[in-house]
Write a structure and sequence with these properties.
The complex is a heterodimer.
Chain A lengths: L23 E2 L3 E2 L7 H6 L4 H11 L11 H10 L6 E6 L8 H8 L1 H15 L3 E6 L7 H17 L5 E6 L9 H8 L23 E5 H13 L1 H5 L9 E8 L5 E6 L2 E2 H8 L4 E6 L5 E4 L7 E2 L9 E6 L4 H15 L5 H18 L7 H15 L3 H16 L1 H5 L1
Helix pairs in contact in A: 2-3, 5-6, 5-8, 11-12, 11-14, 12-13, 12-14, 13-14
Chain B lengths: L3 E6 L2 E6 L4 H7 L23 E4 L6 E2 L9 E4 L3 H16 L15 H8 L18 E2 L5 E4 L8 H9 L6 E3 L6 E3 L16 H5 L5 E3 L3 H9 L4 E6 L20 H11 L3 E4 H24 L10 E2 L4 H10 L13 H17 L6 E7 L3 H6 L14 E4 H10 L21 H4 L6 H15 L19 E7 L14 E8 L1 H12 L7 E5 L17 H16 L10 H11 L5 H7 L9
Parallel strand pairs in B: 1-5, 11-12, 11-14, 13-18, 14-15, 17-18
Antiparallel strand pairs in B: 1-2, 3-4, 3-5, 6-7, 7-10, 8-9, 16-17
Helix pairs in contact in B: 8-10, 8-14
The chains are: A alpha/beta, B alpha/beta.
The structure holds flavin mononucleotide, iron/sulfur cluster (SF4) (4 copies) and FE2/S2 (inorganic) cluster.
Chain lengths: 404, 595
């Protein structure tokens, strides 16, 4: 019973579905779709500034979670006169319940590489890195094959850009852009102070653009179809389509590309099992929406943004257990450097346990909610700042489950 | 000139240079923002999240230590949001912390305790997490105790050890709730590359890294009527001790210090400066001998440049990191150890005391000296040459324990023998000081004339630059030193092991043309030692430095070879520099610690 509000799209996975090198012809043409790499060839004839303006105009926002306008990010990096600059593709994909970048890299890696190359062209960087989640090591041989042909292709069109693939260390925090750069530099994965922002001082302290896998694909597609076509999808605040990782209590878990700005109720109608009591939007660091709010919740930057994870829970699930799992994840995966995150997570876990077993009165939940507010205000990076999201949305919407 | 930025902090208009942090700008506006992980000597970590302030227009609070100012910023340092969040973070730190202040060595000098007091944290909002952590205490080193149950993970120690000392003995291990400060394979500090320099101890805001103290042992010796307790004080103690007793940095308290130590009941208060002068005689002669062997005898096996050996942190560093350069080290013991060996031989003989009854105590600006005194080589008197090493801080504690009103004390003089010293010895406490003292003596020895610097002040070797170089042309030599006529003596001076490492890399690569190198493990030299009063930072080091050269300028004798007690000890006991007795008591050997 597909709703008219829920539109399946084919922007990301469409066209060249294959990774097969056979399909990459000299000159960069995809056999199954003649135009695919021609895009890149045309792009590097344009004025970088025009491309950046296109992307700003498209309204594309980062797909890694934070939703920063991609065009602006590129613009900042392009402004620096620095000779050495970098492009990084964040494929660390560590958010629980997120596995969409995996699919993108398996199915359309060349679009990712093309987007990175366009970025390099726009900001004047000669080097790109794909920071690949450690668990995705199995993809390496295939990715390298595609990358080799890709390198040949851009050489043939007379452009100089080189991409390397690095394997992540397995820590969730290394998906945070500055921790990722620390890790790439061989240091411990700890978030840096911002500013300086990566566009000013990123990898090796040089201007760096870091984007999510899907963001780069979107750039490629904007160049392919044009801004206007892209803007037809989504809403004022959330342009384009989004790839979602659907999991939990659903009859059809998997990766789906949907137009942004949908109503959560429509989504649940399509993917729920008929007994959905809550949806965790955006993974452990996202928000939990209870059934009564499905109707009023928009999935997008004007409502609840998500890096892609949509986890459905039916009435058999204990939200207390769900929250405890998340908190254990954070307590384990925090880099541990800053006080609110390292100690705050420990307090939240022990705190809700103490309430559950009656060692602390239910009032203590209020003290913990206040604590999460401070964590959000003072944690050094997005990890610690976003613990409050799941905590407060689960605790305030499912208070009884926390106490009894 | 740099661009100026205008902003408003708590309704005060401030104008500061671009690049200034909010924390620094606030200081300028006389607004104090509390900090924990911030230390002016170190790079910004921004991890304690205590210095949070509210910047109008920002969704989150901002760490003042890590945020540069920008034009028209409006900042509130004391809003409800700030106050609540700061208090939360203090409470969180305390919940993870073994808060047993009354039983803690840092009680009374602890930044966490100060914050808790300031915020009047009286109720326990949060759950005590200490039982959930397997905190351990490392007592194994003779110099430093590491108590993880007190650690607030500010990483000051890690940054110190890496940025200032390039040792990286301490690092961060594990993540999340298990994150801790650790050593290689979680071994004891005693079993790793740690140099015992104590720079981390000096910067630890809490009681997680402290010196191993020997206060009770020294009291016991004082109270034991069968023991004769001799105590030596290092040059850098007299210009810093005052800081722990209510004086401003840079105050010279030599006379009062001597008086106070006598009041403690020490039998003889003597001066490490005496053996600093002796070091100059021995080390200067050693250098000239090496130069002669190299230049006259064309002996290519002579290790040059020669390097000073009076900083035990530096010794352990080179033993770990550059063992191939050990032959370049002077064989001279540090002044502390020379003193210890003489206390139980020469001094014992002169005073007619059985050396077995002598307890030899030293007060040092240094924690590495505690380790040094324990080295098995340091027993050439037939006894442990130095029984107990106290830091400047421990001496201050003893003075307070004894109820002495330091300020009202009348100044007293060191006892004799081995209590006389010179300006040359005092400046051992500052970076460049050993070099300057050595040049004052060696130049005169070789030419019969004073060093060609105004008022004996060899200014090129002074100051806080990390690596200094100076060359002295030797002219008009006495006949026996003819081979040095016209020679240019190239010297280098480094302080802080990160700078020592730079110089050693140069030497090791054969690119350096130095003859003599002075290295001090601690930033600023001993005046910035790990055992000095807390806080120590650049501003304070500069003040102590000034005091040291002031003390030198005020001394009647300013050249080591003119110290009458030095002449006497050579006449009565040692015969001559590098002589047989010297060799036995004043020189030592080193260990390749990579094996
Ligand atoms: C703890 C943490 C983990 C993150 N993990 C990822 C990740 O796996 N992939 C990703 O693209 N962005 C991740 N991010 C977001 C990045 O920091 C960064 O915002 C993003 O890569 C920017 O790309 P975008 O603008 O294209 O979204 C993470 C952020 C935090 C705080
Ligand atoms: S918020 Fe958490 S993950 Fe981020 S820097 Fe702080 S401790 Fe590390
Ligand atoms: S480290 Fe500080 S706060 Fe902790 S017990 Fe010691 S004095 Fe108290
Ligand atoms: S004593 Fe010195 S070398 Fe040892 S850990 Fe501390 S700073 Fe590093
Ligand atoms: S040992 Fe001290 S300096 Fe090091 S992290 Fe812990 S509290 Fe900070
Ligand atoms: S002092 Fe600023 S975060 Fe610690």
């Amino acid at each position: 019973m597909s709703s008219q509000n829920l539109k399946k799209t084919d922007m990301i996975f469409g066209l060249c579905h294959t990774t097969d090198v056979e399909h990459l012809l000299p000159g960069g043409v995809c056999k199954t779709n003649e135009e695919k790499f021609v895009v890149l060839e045309e792009v590097i004839k344009k004025d970088p500034q025009d491309i950046i303006d296109d992307i700003i105009e498209s309204g594309l926002k980062g797909r890694g979670g934070a939703g920063f306008p991609t065009g602006l990010k590129w613009k900042f990096a392009s402004l620096s006169p620095e000779k050495e600059k970098y492009v990084i593709c964040n494929a660390d994909e560590g958010e629980p319940g997120t596995f969409k970048d995996r699919d993108i890299l398996l199915k359309v890696p060349a679009k990712v590489f093309a987007g990175m190359t366009m970025c390099g062209y726009c900001i004047n960087a000669k080097k790109g890195y794909l920071y690949l989640r450690g668990e995705y090591k199995f993809m390496l041989p295939e990715l390298r094959k595609v990358l080799d042909s890709f390198h040949e292709v851009i050489k043939k069109i007379g452009y100089d850009f080189h991409i390397d693939i690095l394997l992540g260390s397995g820590a969730y925090v290394c998906g945070e852009e500055t921790a990722l750069m620390e890790s790439m530099e061989g240091h411990r994965g700890e978030a840096r102070n911002k500013p300086p922002y990566p566009t000013v001082e990123g990898f090796r302290n040089k201007p760096t653009v870091i984007n999510n896998v899907e963001t780069f694909v979107n750039v490629t597609m904007i160049q392919k179809f044009g801004v206007a076509e892209f803007k037809k999808l989504g809403t004022q605040d959330s342009r384009g389509s989004k790839v979602f990782s659907v999991s939990g209590d659903t009859p059809k878990p998997g990766v789906y590309e949907l137009e942004l700005g949908m109503k959560l109720s429509d989504f649940v109608d399509e993917y729920g099992d008929g007994d959905t009591k809550a949806v965790q939007v955006g993974g452990a660091s996202g928000f939990c929406v209870p059934r009564k709010k499905f109707n009023e919740t928009i999935i997008g930057f004007e409502g609840i943004p998500t890096g892609g994870s949509m986890m459905l829970f039916n009435s058999s699930r204990s939200m207390y257990n769900v929250l405890t799992n998340y908190l254990e994840f954070f307590a384990e995966e925090s880099c541990g450097q800053c006080t609110p995150c390292r100690v705050g997570c420990q307090q939240l876990i022990r705190g809700i346990r103490a309430v559950k077993c009656g060692q602390k009165s239910p009032d203590y939940l209020d003290a913990l909610l206040k604590l999460t507010a401070s964590m959000k205000l003072t944690a050094k990076c997005g990890l610690g700042q976003s613990v409050a999201n799941s905590f407060s949305s689960i605790v305030s919407n499912f208070t009884e489950e926390m106490i009894y | 000139m740099k661009e100026m930025i205008n902003l408003k902090i708590d309704d005060i208009n401030v104008s500061v240079e671009a690049g200034t942090t909010i924390l620094e700008a606030a200081k300028k506006a006389n607004v104090r923002i509390p900090t924990l992980c911030y230390h002016p000597d170190l790079c910004i970590a921004g991890n304690c999240r205590i210095c949070m302030v509210e910047v109008e227009g920002s969704l989150t609070l901002t760490a003042a230590c890590a945020m540069p100012v920008s034009e028209n910023m409006v900042i509130h340092t004391n809003s409800l949001k700030v106050r609540t969040a700061r208090k939360h973070n203090i409470e969180l730190l305390l919940s993870e912390h073994n808060s047993e202040c009354t039983k803690c060595y840092k009680n009374g000098n602890c930044e966490l305790q100060d914050l808790a007091a300031e915020y009047k944290i009286t109720n326990e909002t949060f759950i005590d997490l200490v039982p959930f952590h397997n905190y351990t205490i490392d007592h194994y080193s003779p110099a430093i105790i590491k108590d993880d149950s007190k650690c607030i993970r500010c990483q000051r120690c890690v940054r110190t050890c890496e940025e200032l000392q390039s040792v990286s003995a301490l690092g961060v291990a594990y993540k999340g709730e298990h994150m801790k400060i650790s050593t290689f394979m979680e071994k004891s500090m005693f079993d790793v590359v740690c140099t015992n320099c104590g720079q981390c101890v000096n910067r630890c805001p809490v009681g997680a890294l402290v010196e191993k103290n020997y206060i009770d042992q020294v009291w016991d010796a004082i109270y034991d009527p069968s023991k004769h307790v001799v105590l030596q004080t290092a040059p850098a103690v007299r210009i810093a001790l005052g800081e722990d007793l209510g004086y401003d940095p840079g105050e010279i308290v030599t006379g009062k210090m001597v008086a106070a130590i006598k009041k403690l009941g020490i039998d003889s208060v003597l001066d490490t400066d005496f053996t600093a002068d002796l070091t100059i005689m021995e080390e200067g002669t050693e250098l000239l001998t090496r130069l002669k062997k190299a230049l006259v005898d064309k002996d290519s096996s002579v290790a040059l440049p020669m390097m000073t050996s009076c900083s035990p942190g530096w010794i352990k560093f080179i033993e770990h990191q550059f063992p191939q350069l050990l032959p370049n080290l002077s064989t001279c013991k540090s002044p502390q150890q020379m003193f210890g060996a003489l206390a139980k031989t020469y001094y014992a003989q002169k005073r007619n005391i059985d050396p077995a009854d002598i307890v030899s105590v030293s007060v040092m600006p240094c924690t590495a000296k505690k380790f040094e005194a324990d080295r098995p080589e340091m027993r050439s008197s037939g006894y442990k040459d130095v029984d107990y090493v106290l830091t400047t801080r421990e001496l201050a504690v003893m003075i307070k324990q004894a109820g002495i009103d330091f300020e009202s004390l009348k100044e007293e003089k060191y006892d004799s023998i081995m209590g006389q010293s010179t300006g040359a010895a005092v400046i051992f406490g500052a970076t460049g000081g050993v070099m300057e003292a050595a040049l004052r003596t060696a130049y005169e020895l070789v030419t019969g004339r004073e060093v060609p610097f105004d008022g004996l002040n060899i200014t090129p070797v002074r100051g806080m630059e990390g690596v200094k170089e100076a060359s002295v042309k030797i002219e008009g030599t006495l006949p026996e030193w003819k081979f040095l006529e016209g020679a240019i003596l190239n010297t280098a001076i480094a302080h802080g092991l990160v700078n020592a490492k730079k110089v050693m890399e140069l030497v090791d690569s054969g690119k350096a043309n130095y003859h003599f190198i002075e290295i001090m493990a601690c930033p600023g030299g001993c005046l910035g030692g790990g055992g000095q009063p807390i806080p120590t930072n650049m501003e304070i080091r500069m003040k102590r430095n000034k005091a040291i050269y002031q003390e030198d300028a005020g001394m009647p004798i300013r050249k080591s070879h003119e110290n009458p007690e030095i002449a006497l000890i050579y006449k009565e006991f040692l015969e001559k520099p590098l002589g047989h007795t010297s060799h036995k008591l004043l020189h030592t050997t080193y260990i390749d610690r990579t094996k």
